[in-house]
Design brief:
Its EC number is 3.6.3.-. Keywords: ATP-binding, Hydrolase, Nucleotide-binding, Transport. It is an enzyme of class 3 (hydrolase). This is ABC transporter ATP-binding protein YknY. By secondary structure, the protein is of the alpha/beta class. Strands 1, 4, 7, 8, 9, 10 and 11 form a 7-stranded mixed β-sheet that branches. A 4-stranded antiparallel β-sheet has the order 3-2-5-6, covered by helices on one side. Helix 5 crosses helix 6 and helix 6 packs across helix 7. The longest helix is centred in the last third of the chain and has 18 residues. The protein is globular and about 50 Å long. Bound molecules: adenosine-5'-triphosphate (ATP). Adenosine-5'-triphosphate binds next to strand 2, strand 3 and helix 3. The site of adenosine-5'-triphosphate has 12 residues, from strand 2, strand 3 and helix 3.
Length: about 260
């Protein structure tokens, strides 16, 4: 199942849905930062998960008996060929979809049993998403893009400036924060997307092929930013990749073939 140890995320709209006021307070209380990073328990556990789609009246078994753990502060990669099921699994982990069978626990709470609204609330407060195609608002500056994310997460306006400046520093873009996306390189745009995804201090960052559009130098920069974020922000990162050159920075790699880990 696990291949390597050290050494050896359709849904851009998710972040931008306006927050429903006052909903799901109970769920939020249950999940919000109640599990400190040193409990020893995994942040997320996937148990015997299956996902089947109906295609032309026939079942298509895309995920088959998946078991995995995301521990606090880890950089975990899902690797596999196109069509192996990586994005489907990432969508389940991020609560964008639900398993056909099996269980997913996030901070010890049964994510698979929550309603759509409850999962949306957990996602908005506790998770950040990064996609291959950056998902930035083109008419807003880098600063304003990150600000939008804080607004959507319901963070008080008085905290925005300090947090945005800090996040832009973390991704190495302090000097470019007032540029708009078209004035930035692909790697810089992806770093803005990372700042946007972590601004509300999520516990879990999910990234679907975050380096797919980038050359090897820019990909290495993104991985270095990920390592920096893990070290400073108490976040766990789970990402999909095709790229064998970046696997060595992972704490754990799951290799997926035809909907299963090998
Ligand atoms: N909603 C859906 N309905 C039917 N089939 C689906 C659906 N979503 C995914 N699939 C199928 O599930 C399989 C796995 O898709 P998935 O996108 O998870 O693979 P992947 O490993 O992420 O591929 P890639 O690297 O190309 O993104 C594919 O055969 C795909 O066509």
């Amino acid at each position: 199942m696990a291949l390597w140890r050290r050494k050896q995320g359709e849904a851009p709209a998710v972040q931008d849905e306006p927050a429903k006021e006052e909903d799901n307070k109970t769920v939020l209380k249950a999940v919000q930062r109640e599990a400190p990073a040193d409990t020893g328990k995994p942040l997320l556990t996937v148990e015997s998960v299956e996902r089947t789609f109906q295609v032309g009246g026939q079942p298509l078994h895309v995920l088959k008996s998946i078991n995995m753990e995301l521990k606090h502060g880890q950089l975990v990669m899902l690797r596999g060929r196109s069509g192996s099921g990586k994005t489907t699994l990432l969508n389940l982990i991020g609560g964008l979809d639900q398993p056909s069978k099996g269980h997913i626990f996030f901070q010890d709470k049964p994510f698979h049993k929550m309603s759509d609204d409850q999962r949306t609330t957990v996602r908005r407060k506790q998770m950040g998403f990064i996609f291959q195609a950056f998902a930035l608002m083109p008419l807003l500056s880098a600063y304003e893009n990150v600000e939008l994310s804080l607004r959507m997460a319901g963070i008080p306006g008085s905290e925005w400036k300090e947090r945005i400046v800090h996040c832009m520093e973390l991704v190495g873009l302090s000097k470019r924060m007032h540029h708009r996306p078209f004035e930035l390189s692909g790697g810089e745009q992806q770093r803005v997307a990372i700042a946007k995804a972590i601004a509300h201090r999520p516990r879990l960052l999910l990234a679907d092929e975050p380096t797919a559009e980038l050359d090897s130098q820019m990909s290495a920069q993104i991985m270095s930013v990920f390592q920096n974020i893990i070290a400073t922000e108490q976040v766990t990162i789970c990402m999909t990749t095709h790229d064998p050159t970046i696997l060595e920075v992972a704490d754990h790699v799951y290799e997926m073939v035809d909907g299963k880990f090998i």
